[in-house]
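During the reporting period the student researcher (J.K.) took over the structure-prediction task from the postdoctoral fellow and processed the backlog of single-chain submissions. One of the processed entries is reproduced below for the supervisory committee.
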Amino acid sequence: GAYAVCLLCGRRKPLRVWFQAMWYVTNQKLGVSALGLKRVLGLGSYQTAWSWLHKLRRAMVRPGRELLTGRVEVDESYVGGDEKGVSGRQSEGKALVVIAVEVHSPKGFGRVRMRQVADASGPSLIGFVKDVVAPGSATVTDGWAGYGGLAALGYVHERRVVAGSGDAAHVVLPGPHRVASLLKRWLLGTHQGAVSHEHLDYYLDEYTFRFNRRKARARGLLFHRLMEQAVQLAPVTYDHL
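J.K. obtained the following structure tokens:
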């Protein structure tokens, strides 16, 4: 049969096992943990299952994917445990994730993009928007100064000031807040919240892949898409992961 070299252990693994891993990952609506993959495939170690999952998560980001268009809401959310006495755009141990989601009229959401950023500064936030949203799109944010340069870059920038408006943030920007809530619930339910900051981007990639294909009628289409994108990636070692 056909084999592929496992970059973690240096041994040849049957392609059939890789296909089984891809099918299992895409067939589970809420995703899988490394322990679950290890049990289902009979892999020799948790480390192997963990590395396989991260390699598949890397494949969930299609190179050259289209930018978001139309009306796009952008906001940040902190991922991690609660911190007493910390409010606003402050954090001592949580990861800051910026979220952009297409908002349809009269209701409903389109595609989403997410990224962990170092801070809520203009370079971090505007850099993200430039990478994921097409110029000319109606980009909706709160009144945070970090988004102040969007209009000069060709975006139709709509600022919604939360303070003093009488509306809660989740009412003013429902798209990112809904996605953030679902993301946190997914991380807690599927991975028991045990996601380190250094690996969070891999999980954001997986959740984006699942969210953007949530209306797919056939799980086989997800499997086909993941396999198609996996063969376009260069190999990666366990140390790199």
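The committee noted the following: Residues 174-191 form the longest helix (18 residues).
J.K. will present the remaining backlog at the next meeting.
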